[in-house]
Amino acid sequence: MRDISTPQTIDVSLRDVVKHYGPFQALKGVSLEVAKGETIVICGPSGSGKSTLIRCINQLETHDSGDIVVRGITVDGTPANTRDVRIEVGMVFQQFNLFPHITVLQNCTLALRLLNKGTKRLNEEKAMYYLERVRIAEQAHKYPAQLSGGQQQRVAIARALCMEPPVMLFDEPTSALDPEMINEVLQVMEDLARGGMTMICVTHEMGFARRVADRCVFMADGEIHEIAPAEAFFDAPESPRLRGFLDRILPSTAHS
Amino acid sequence: MHFDLSLAIASLPALFHGLMMTICLSIFVLLLGIVFSVPMALARMSKRRSLAWPALVFVIFFRGTPVLVLLYILYFGIAQFAWVRESFFWPLFADPFGCAVIGLALNHVAYMTDVVRGSLLSVPRGIAEASLALGIPERKVFLWVRLPLALRYGIRAYQNEVVGFIKGTAIVSVVTINDLTAVANGIFQETYDPLTPMITAAVMYWIVVNLVRLGFAGLDRWLNRHHAPEPASRTRTRKAAVA
Ligand SMILES: Nc1ncnc2c1ncn2[C@@H]1O[C@H](COP(=O)(O)OP(=O)(O)OP(=O)(O)O)[C@@H](O)[C@H]1O
Ligand SMILES: [Mg+2]
């Protein structure tokens, strides 16, 4: 669909990516190009390979075949290469995965410290800047367990941002949250997207997808069944499987 | 037969000497335990069979052998081999203290390997993944994330092992070491009073063990301070200021 000759920079490119868990094929040749500054939403039924796909991008899972290129770096699985790729890509998880034994501020500065970046003061200033951006600076000296789920997830976003990655991955960032906390996290993500971050988000928040996503991707059984701009994706889905999926998760608009 | 207070007091210096031996021995072996159990646990958890298997055999063998038997083998058995007597390590095996340290350490490390392994396994995988995703190299993730968290999960099991271990050192008297139990036993042999020296020794063990417990309780509180609720004082002062 996209014109290949457009002079856009491609931040993330996947070509024919295949991934097995033992004999089970979780990704059956997935191809996707994400332009700089683009926000992609990936949805699909449970077990369709959404997490596997985005975890292959930063090599939390190693793919079996196909090409993954992140900001010009062709992922090859060697330790040095993997580290280079991970510097380019931040990730936010469903379960927050904050370091429980250190404060919010230290959560944000730990990676900088362990990678010998910056001075203590510079790192803390940077951490405070990003904590402010996710509107949680006043909790900087608390421990994660003293925060609500939504606050913890915003800290997790700030922690990833402190590494100043040009690309961010989100794996169902709001699925573990109480409903009243979902919006505060989505709002932060929306701000990021509007600020020009390249984002790949696995989420079933369809309101967010409509408002923020440039393109939406529908996955099922380890394959991409449909890629379309948000509007077309929701209002004129082509594949029957996507139509069925949308009917199930958007019951109110099923017969519009 | 009654508890002879004047004998107890008269025995205190000798018993104290024995106690020092017990403590010395314990510190030595506990340090060896800390140094060796982490690499052993890593070997045991390694995907490489050439590492995992020897570690597993070590754990099974030394957990399954009574310390008493180990000490007999080390102190009396090994000396039978001429090549051991001629080797560089002979001074260690010829010395009862050396034998006791090695024998206790083999058993302690075998137990500790499983304590460390269990603690490492209880660190949520997602937290290590989040660290990797931030670009932190695997080695540093282990050192700065998994190990400190494992320490917090494992501290209670470790305390139990340490307390059990300290009481278990009483066995070293069989290789002629004058630890607290051996000294108390000596006083019994001399005075024919079994009650007084043994009860005094028991009280000394009790004091040491409970000091250790107190120490661990403090350490546990400090390590797990992140679970403590918000200190109430700050909110209270703020309310007071408003009022
Ligand atoms: N470590 C693993 N070992 C074996 N199979 C796995 C592993 N991880 C995922 N799978 C399988 O691969 C398939 C895709 O999993 P994945 O987690 O990518 O799905 P998903 O689309 O993210 O699903 P969900 O919406 O439930 O998160 C599933 O069938 C899952 O059972
Ligand atoms: Mg998933």
Automatic annotation (TrEMBL), chain A:
Pfam family, one: ABC_tran
Keyword terms, alphabetized: ATP-binding, Nucleotide-binding, Transport
InterPro entries named among the record's database cross-references: AAA+_ATPase, ABC_ATPase_HisP-typ, ABC_transporter-like_ATP-bd, ABC_transporter-like_CS, MetN_ABC_transporter-like, P-loop_NTPase
One Gene Ontology MF term: ABC-type amino acid transporter activity
Domain ABC transporter: 12-246
Keyword Transport: yes
Family to which the UniProt record says this protein belongs: Belongs to the ABC transporter superfamily.
Stored PANTHER family: AMINO ACID IMPORT ATP-BINDING PROTEIN, PHOSPHONATES IMPORT ATP-BINDING PROTEIN PHNC
Name of the protein in its database record: ATP-binding cassette domain-containing protein
TrEMBL record, chain B:
PROSITE patterns: ABC_TM1
Organism: Pseudooceanicola albus
Lineage of the species this protein comes from: Bacteria, Pseudomonadati, Pseudomonadota, Alphaproteobacteria, Rhodobacterales
Chain segments annotated as transmembrane: 20-43, 55-76, 88-111, 162-183, 195-216
Keyword Transmembrane helix applies: yes
Cell compartment(s), UniProt: Cell inner membrane; Cell membrane
Protein name per UniProt: ABC transporter permease subunit
Keyword match Transport: yes
Membrane topology per record: Multi-pass membrane protein
GO CC terms: ATP-binding cassette (ABC) transporter complex
